[in-house]
């Protein structure tokens, strides 16, 4: 009834090619933005920020990054944790070396450095495909974590081997360190997420995104019709690592504040982000959000239900959580291999015809 | 003979032994990959699950004791008996067969025809699930596993090498046993797939699913069988690793160590898994011995992966893998 193209006349090419061509979609997008920027910062408190909102925002950035590589370009990567570590350590080195520069620039530069590292580890993708590539990216994961653990220069020779985020501000508002207010950290991450999402959405709609998808669907055929696989694959690795690096920098500097690399950016993190992408939906920006929200919420909900409501011991709940997450993943793959994004698409198709489905 | 060279020889020998253990895990991967094209990430957790079940059965633990006690307020922990190792191994094997059936019935059957990446993700989900179930069933504390395998330094070898080189090699008895068992296992698997009816059917399925189906081979049965055999290999690997370093969570991480072994050897080749395991075992021990002290040690964490990565750039299908032919 209200979700359809009919009656929404476009009078210029600009209008016709906008990101959300359907009016209802567009207004929904503005409302979400208005709530996220205008309402949540005023009602947020420390618990909500640290337990749900910050991890969601940061994982969403990482999931968008990985989705570009896996979902749009078809190159499976298990090195996300390692690339997040690059972002975190780059951010740390920049923060301590140039204390006066704005955090915005540090985080962006950290993303850029990660992009360069990502391209380096993406080079083998020109020769290796499929599973072999997935396992090859494990080399990045283990090598990078080892590097940050063993070379003291990266953690500024601190005795514990940890990195701790010093207090830094943006326009006089403290963003990192224990004294940062919840709304400031939230807004800081939200700005990055919004920029990343807009960038990703428009990249995947344009020439670059189409060459990625051509490579994903059949790389040899794409090559024959004139897509340069070297350029397509390496740009995918660069853009993906850029986002993942930003996520890593935010995860360390804004969310955790102190990081021990093997624990925080281990192989488990790579799998977690990959799960978000798969459960959310491969090749969908909305799916990245949905997957991140789902996997951030699930442990919190299980903990609240298991420990607080039913009163079970925490270790049983922790094990039960593994069982439930595992079972859910398998169930999802069986029932809806295209993820939450597909449910959303189906819902939209239904809405378009509602209330007269024939 | 110089001292360094003798040390290096000892390192190589130890590396060979470690390689055999990697190869054992890798074997389980190859079996399932060949027969169904599924890359089974859960292989390592299966080894953990098998080892935990074995310990639990041997000690007469009550399954899910922790959960039962928490729910009903009871205090049951043990049946109060112990079961001899051999019988316990047989019982564990029965559990692994049931597990294989359940995996086929509830997971893999519904995923036939999906893309490989989806199947791979499903096995990761399975790994999480199994790990949780194993912890709930038998408790998550580190357990010792002793099925009566010899352990400790091999004195005879120590003495012989001392007489020859003037320096006794330290070789663990358990590693020697593992090597023998691995050799027997590979022999048995090859014989099984070459000379038995079921083995031939398995190879037929590996070759071409549809053709196998059309000559009357039951895919369902073959896949349950393959998962059972992989479960058996996981049990053997679990016993070896469990005896060596205790039954604990890190056991499931050896699955990751098996990945570069597979890449080196090729996903589809049983001899490849063995040779790959040996190369990785020797390579990482030698690298740690020669280069490790210069760069801060613990290079074993990544050496295998980087070696496999560099190797693959030159030969994408691995040492013994089938040549990858691509068509549009």
UniProtKB/TrEMBL annotation, chain A:
Stored InterPro entries: ABC_transp_permease (IPR001851), LivM-like (IPR043428)
Alphabetic keyword roster: Cell membrane, Membrane, Transmembrane, Transmembrane helix
Membrane spanning residue stretches: 27-44, 50-69, 76-95, 101-123, 130-148, 183-200, 236-259, 271-296, 316-335
Localisation per UniProt entry: Cell membrane
Membrane topology of this protein: Multi-pass membrane protein
Pfam families, per the entry: BPD_transp_2
The UniProt record lists the keyword Hydrolase: no
Presence of keyword Glycoprotein: no
PANTHER family assigned: ABC TRANSPORTER PERMEASE PROTEIN, HIGH-AFFINITY BRANCHED-CHAIN AMINO ACID TRANSPORT SYSTEM PERMEASE
Name by which UniProt lists this protein: Branched-chain amino acid ABC transporter permease
Biological source species: Ruegeria haliotis
Organism lineage string: Bacteria, Pseudomonadati, Pseudomonadota, Alphaproteobacteria, Rhodobacterales
TrEMBL record, chain B:
Entry annotated with the keyword Transmembrane: yes
Domain of life: Bacteria
Ranges that cross the membrane: 12-33, 45-67, 79-103, 110-130, 164-192, 213-241, 261-282, 294-314
Keywords, ordered alphabetically: Amino-acid transport, Cell membrane, Membrane, Transmembrane, Transmembrane helix, Transport
Compartment(s) of residence: Cell membrane
Main location: membrane
Topology in membrane: Multi-pass membrane protein
One Pfam family hit: BPD_transp_2
Record-stated family: Belongs to the binding-protein-dependent transport system permease family. LivHM subfamily.
Name of the protein in its database record: Branched-chain amino acid ABC transporter permease
Species annotation: Ruegeria haliotis
């Amino acid at each position: 009834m209200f979700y359809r193209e009919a009656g929404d006349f476009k009078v210029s090419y600009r209008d016709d090619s906008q990101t959300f061509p359907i009016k209802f979609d567009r207004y929904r997008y503005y409302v979400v933005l208005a709530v996220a920027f205008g309402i949540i910062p005023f009602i947020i408190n420390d618990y909500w920020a640290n337990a749900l909102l910050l991890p969601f925002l940061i994982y969403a950035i990482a999931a968008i990054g990985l989705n570009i590589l896996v979902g749009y370009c078809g190159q499976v990567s298990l090195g996300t944790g390692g690339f997040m570590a690059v972002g975190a350590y780059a951010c740390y080195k920049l923060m301590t070396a140039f204390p006066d520069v704005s955090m915005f620039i540090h985080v962006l530069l950290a993303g850029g450095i990660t992009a360069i590292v990502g391209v380096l580890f993406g080079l083998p993708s020109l020769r290796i495909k499929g599973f072999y590539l997935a396992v090859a990216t494990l080399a990045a994961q283990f090598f990078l974590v080892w590097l940050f653990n063993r070379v003291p220069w990266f953690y500024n020779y601190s005795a514990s081997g940890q990195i701790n985020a010093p207090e830094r501000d943006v326009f006089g508002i403290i963003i990192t360190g224990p004294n940062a207010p919840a709304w400031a950290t939230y807004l800081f991450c939200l700005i990055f997420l919004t920029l990343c999402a807009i960038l990703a959405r428009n990249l995947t709609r344009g020439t670059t995104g189409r060459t990625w998808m051509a490579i994903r669907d059949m790389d040899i055929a794409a090559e024959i019709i004139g897509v340069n696989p070297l350029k397509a694959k390496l740009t995918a690795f660069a853009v993906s690592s850029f986002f993942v690096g930003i996520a890593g920098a935010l995860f360390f500097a804004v969310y955790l504040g102190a990081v021990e690399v093997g624990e925080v950016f281990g192989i488990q993190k790579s799998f977690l982000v990959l799960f978000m992408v798969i459960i959310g939906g491969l090749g969908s920006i909305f799916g990245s959000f949905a997957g991140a929200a789902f996997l951030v919420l699930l442990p919190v909900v299980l903990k609240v239900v298991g420990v607080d409501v039913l009163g079970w011991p925490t270790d049983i709940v922790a094990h039960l959580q593994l069982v439930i997450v595992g079972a859910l993943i398998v169930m999802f793959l069986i029932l809806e291999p295209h993820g939450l994004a597909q449910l959303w698409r189906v819902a939209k198709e239904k809405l378009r015809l509602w209330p007269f489905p024939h | 003979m110089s001292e360094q060279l003798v040390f290096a020889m000892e390192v190589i020998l130890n590396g060979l032994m470690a390689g055999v253990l990697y190869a054992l895990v890798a074997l389980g991967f190859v079996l399932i990959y060949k027969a169904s094209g599924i890359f089974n990430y859960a292989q390592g957790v299966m080894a953990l699950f098998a080892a935990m079940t074995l310990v639990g059965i041997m000690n007469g633990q009550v399954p899910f004791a922790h959960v039962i006690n928490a729910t009903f307020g009871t205090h049951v922990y043990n049946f109060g008996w112990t079961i001899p190792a051999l019988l316990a191994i047989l019982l564990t094997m029965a559990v692994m067969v049931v597990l294989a059936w359940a995996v086929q019935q509830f997971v893999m059957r519904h995923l036939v025809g999906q893309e490989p990446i989806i199947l791979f993700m499903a096995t990761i989900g399975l790994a999480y699930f199994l790990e949780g179930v194993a912890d709930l069933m038998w408790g998550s504390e580190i357990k010792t596993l002793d099925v009566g395998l010899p352990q400790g330094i091999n004195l005879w070898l120590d003495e012989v090498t001392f007489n020859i080189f003037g320096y006794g090699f330290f070789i663990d008895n358990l590693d020697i046993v593992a090597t023998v068992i691995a050799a027997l296992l590979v022999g048995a698997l090859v014989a099984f797939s070459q000379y038995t009816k079921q083995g031939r059917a398995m190879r037929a399925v590996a070759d071409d699913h549809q053709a196998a189906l059309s000559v009357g081979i039951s895919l369902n049965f073959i896949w349950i069988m393959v998962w059972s055999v992989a479960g058996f290999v996981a049990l053997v690997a679990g016993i070896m690793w469990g005896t060596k370093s205790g039954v604990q969570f890190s056991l499931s991480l050896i699955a990751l160590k098996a990945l570069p072994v597979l890449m080196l050897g090729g996903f589809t080749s049983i001899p490849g898994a063995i040779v790959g395991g040996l190369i990785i075992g020797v390579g990482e021990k030698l690298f740690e011995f020669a280069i490790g002290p210069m760069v801060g040690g613990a290079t074993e964490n990544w050496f295998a992966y980087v070696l496999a990565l560099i190797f693959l750039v030159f030969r994408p299908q691995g040492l013994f893998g089938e040549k990858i032919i691509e068509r549009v």
